[in-house]
């Protein structure tokens, strides 16, 4: 079975690409969702978050206080809080990825995908047979994300990620997503066909 990573900077179109791959009939797992699941269900993770960042990490109804946490992580020049958060969340998420991979393999899947913004930042690239990076230019990213986030917040998040060009250089495939959704579908199908030819 082939295990393929999909990555790219914030707003580059990772999730859109992943949903195109799902439409083509493949299983895609989203590490953001795995992280949410871990935070919701894993009491030891919850305790570590509270110990590190205080009770405010969770709202009165028990939900994660994403506003509080994003503020701690992105509104600080240093990467200390981001690193602390990653050190708590990444190990159980990686464990989940391993479990998913094993059970898909047993179920006879031929190829599966994981979508994660942080494949390179977390040093996970070696775990994949192939890594696909989605690249979009900054104007497109701003145009797409400004509907849900202000410009300043987008720039702050971009600053915390590895430069996209660096990710592209270390990837097996790069998809440029500066055109229409139809263009993205075409590029995705093209790359899927190449990868499919590697299934034996
Ligand atoms: P994030 O890092 O915020 O999770 P992402 O990399 O997963 O972002 P998407 O959510 O796929 O990016 O895309 C961001 C927004 O841009 C979405 O609203 C999506 O519908 C839109 N979008 C992505 N690609 C295109 C495209 N080629 N044409 C038009 N809109 C697009």
Provide the β-strand percentage band.
Answer: 5-15%
Summed up, the helix count is 9
Name the strands of the widest sheet in spatial order.
2-3-1-4-5
**SSE pattern, N- to C-terminal:** EHEHHHHEEHHHEH
DSSP strand tally: 5
Fourth-level CATH superfamily: P-loop containing nucleotide triphosphate hydrolases
Overall geometric form: globular
- Radius of gyration, whole Å: 17 Å
Task: Name the ligand types.
Answer: adenosine-5'-triphosphate
Instruction: State the helical fraction.
Output: 40-55%
CATH architecture: 3-Layer(aba) Sandwich
Quaternary structure type: single chain
Question: What is the compact description of this entry?
Answer:
This protein is α/β, with parallel strands linked by helices. The chain has one domain: Rossmann fold.
Structure notes:
- By secondary structure, this protein is α/β, with parallel strands linked by helices.
- It has one domain: Rossmann fold.
- It has nine helices and five strands, in the order βαβααααββαααβα.
- The chain has helices at residues 14-23, 31-41, 43-53, 66-74, 80-106, 138-145, 151-159, 164-169, 181-196; strands at 2-8, 27-30, 111-115, 130-135, 173-176.
- The radius of gyration is 17 Å and the shape is globular.
- The mean pLDDT is 94.
- Bound molecules: adenosine-5'-triphosphate (ATP).
- Adenosine-5'-triphosphate is lined by residues 8, 10-16, 117, 144, 177, 180-181, 184.
């Amino acid at each position: 079975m082939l295990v393929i990573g999909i990555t790219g900077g914030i707003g580059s179109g990772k999730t859109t690409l992943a949903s195109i791959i799902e439409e083509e009939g493949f299983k895609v797992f989203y590490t953001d969702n795995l992280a949410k699941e871990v935070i919701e269900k894993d009491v030891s993770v919850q305790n570590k978050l509270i110990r590190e960042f205080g009770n405010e990490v969770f709202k009165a109804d028990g939900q994660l206080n994403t506003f509080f946490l994003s503020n701690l992580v992105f509104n600080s020049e240093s990467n200390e809080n981001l690193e602390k958060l990653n050190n708590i969340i990444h190990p159980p998420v990686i464990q989940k990825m391993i479990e998913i991979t094993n059970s898909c393999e047993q179920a006879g899947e031929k190829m599966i995908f994981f979508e994660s913004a942080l494949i390179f930042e977390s040093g996970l690239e070696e775990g994949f047979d192939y890594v696909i990076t989605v690249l979009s230019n900054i104007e497109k990213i701003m145009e797409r994300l400004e509907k849900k986030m202000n410009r300043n917040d987008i720039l702050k998040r971009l600053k915390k990620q590895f430069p996209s060009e660096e990710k592209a250089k270390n990837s097996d495939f790069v998809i440029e997503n500066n055109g229409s959704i139809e263009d993205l579908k075409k590029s995705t199908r093209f790359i899927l066909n190449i990868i499919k030819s590697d299934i034996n």
